[in-house]
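User: quick one, fold this
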Amino acid sequence: MAPAVQTGLDALRTEGFQRLRGRRLGVLCHAASVDGGLVHLLDLFGAAGLDVRRVFTPEHGLTSAAQDMWPVSATARTGRAELVSLYGASPASLRPPAGSLVDLELLVADLQDVGCRYYTFAASVRYCLEECARAGVPLLLLDRPNPLGGLRLEGPLLTDACRSFVGAHAVPVRHGLTLGELARQALREGVAAELEVVPARGWRRADGFERTGLPWVMPSPNMPSLETATVYPGACLLEATNLSEGRGTTRPFELVGAPWLDGARLARELEAAGLPGVRFRATTFQPTFHKHAGQACGGVQLHVTDRQAFRPVWTGARLLQLARRLAPDRFAWRAEPYEFEAARPALDLLSGSPALRLAVEQDADLAPLAERWEADCAAFAEARRSLLLYPEEAP
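Assistant:
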């Protein structure tokens, strides 16, 4: 049975790739750049005889196998095309290098996003748009559904002072946009690129990924499932601390803990907080790599019971606060550089401002912050309407 939704790639395939024929192409893609039948874009383009000169790859590489913040080899070849990494060892590596666009007539971008501002593929698309504008090369974006749906917004807005590779667009953490719509926002914010978006056919904003009928292909090694993507907007905040966010386990971002954390007590505190749509189970886990590799970590597993009610960002904020409250002498903010940033705290980059970090440090009531987030999200919901490619229908 065919999926209920066609991605932009599927739509382009049904057209016979006519708009790409006879043009010198660059492609931005990764392992999840597949059609509804799990055939990869590069295989489809190759079978169609298209002239792909250069393949650009985002963080995690073409195979989506490289771990977070692992530099990927700068250049190689895949078939007849040159392979260029957009995630190397320096900030300059995040953009198409000088001269890599000038011989192209079109850059085609097809990446599976997860609906969260921190996930770096949106920044890669924006940086490509900026470089395409400089080179005079149009960008054709093949859109895909937002796995978290397109109606619910949550979390703080990004401030200009905290723009970075994990915050390239002034949107809430859970923004409810597709990559095509985020690219349109980049144009609204002044990026003077020529952009065309091929929308996903049949997707409604009320639909989460489970209703699309599309296969889930891991866009990164620690995003194995829709369950992971569901908790990611909140649990990713733990990257800014010395707590394990579950990397190195079979449940990344669903497991949170540290060797010095009392998981049973943390579970009781979180349960008592009455966070909607989620339960917490005390557990012990042992990461095989990443933070606390080889050490038994006390902590909790997040069990989402109601995806519609669940507020991942609010849950992540409360997790931060309660973990620090239980072990204030052991809890610490990340001290190492984060996504090429050494001067600004990682939590500020993720949350979009210093507000959450300062509130956690002061063990302040987070409710006023949450109220501000809701007001900002309501204002953004109005402002984003001109960007939308898919109607806002009630669930």
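User: anything notable?
Assistant: The chain has a mean pLDDT of 95.
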